[in-house]
Amino acid sequence: MEPPKSEKTPEKSTSEAPVTVSSAFPPSGCCTNCGGPTISEPPPLASFPEMSPPPNYRPIRAPAINLPHNSQAIILSPVPHAEQVAVVTPPYQFETPIKRIHSPDDIRRFQESASCKNFLGFVVSLSESIRGQKISDPCHISPTVAAIVSILETLLQWIDEIPPAQQSARYGNVSFRSWHERLRERGETLILEFLPEEFKGSRIEIVPYFLDSFGNSSRIDYGTGHETNFAAWLYCLARMGIVKEEDYHGLVARVFVKYLELMRKLQMVYCLEPAGSHGVWGLDDYHFLPFIFGSSQLIDHKYMKPKSIHNDDILENFSSEYMYLSCIAFVKKVKKGLFAEHSPLLDDISGVPNWKKVNSGLLKMYKVEVLEKVPIMQHFLFGWLIKWEE
């Protein structure tokens, strides 16, 4: 059936042509490459699962074909479960954390360790704490949560005080190095302001996670590894009992939302290069966790479904309340062209029937695509709070 003229897909170069069911499998008697008449019969049609597209949205490719290269590992991986964080007790043995992961064997050792399971369980607990909640909903805000939000607001203010340099390069504004240098000079002092006296000695271990949470000053880039360091910093605070389970909702709705605001401003002002991006085949150039937390927010929502991301009115009116919608709106703001072409994986996820499946799938994907990737985890640090188990 010929689509309305207003909905026709713009032409693309042959090297980037979108794959649709009709273009991939021409009518019988036609060449599968050029579409011309043939003598032999073409290969049989492949069967695609039925899926109703969202209103006023015409997908340009068959759904669910843009999974990562190791999609089988994601599918077979069990859904991670929440775990209670094991709080440390005296005597404390804080140490300077170091890198331990250098090979796939190291990744396997980490995946089998209690440290990995407990950290991933902490991420799941944060996700569950925000389930069905809007960002503006009331939540418990402890002095520690308020102090962390204040620190992030200070880092936001520094951006205004250190304007970007005038340069011709598209990525990597050198002024970011000045911002990051100030972070290294004052970061420890900011953290010591809210650390209880008995945990002052932990600064040698937790400050490196904090400093690695905002990008790399040499490469002037940022990615999911840096985001994971921020989660690891919060996890270390939970290990010491400085943040408790009743703070988890506030950690997501107040702390992580403020962190996301800070990182977006850093990305835009200093043009940070995506670190380790999968490009068009990745979930997002910079972030992963807000998609997990945001999908949890929308579980069992009466009206908004995964396909609602294609409704611009919904994005405009509700992105301030739901992180997932905020991420989609930001992607559409910074990337040009058809959404299904520059973000095919997010486009495919919109065809999943409900948010619970989206959330569980993203948790599995985070484990496989972030925590099991050597290029990302080779920079991760291990000390006494997050132990490397031989």
From TrEMBL:
- Keyword Ubl conjugation on entry: no
**Broadest EC class?**
isomerase
Signal peptide bounds: none
Annotated keywords: Cytoplasm, Isomerase, Rotamase
One Pfam annotation reads PTPA
**Chain residue ranges for the region called Disordered:** 1-27
| Alphabetical list of InterPro entries matching this protein | Phstyr_phstse_ac, PTPA_C_lid, PTPA_sf
**Enzyme Commission number:** 5.2.1.8
Q: List the CDD domains.
A: PTPA
Q: Does the keyword Cytoplasm apply?
A: yes
Q: What does this protein do?
A: PPIases accelerate the folding of proteins. It catalyzes the cis-trans isomerization of proline imidic peptide bonds in oligopeptides.
Q: Under which name does UniProt file this protein?
A: Serine/threonine-protein phosphatase 2A activator
**Taxonomic lineage:** Eukaryota, Viridiplantae, Streptophyta, Embryophyta, Tracheophyta
- The gene is LOC104707210
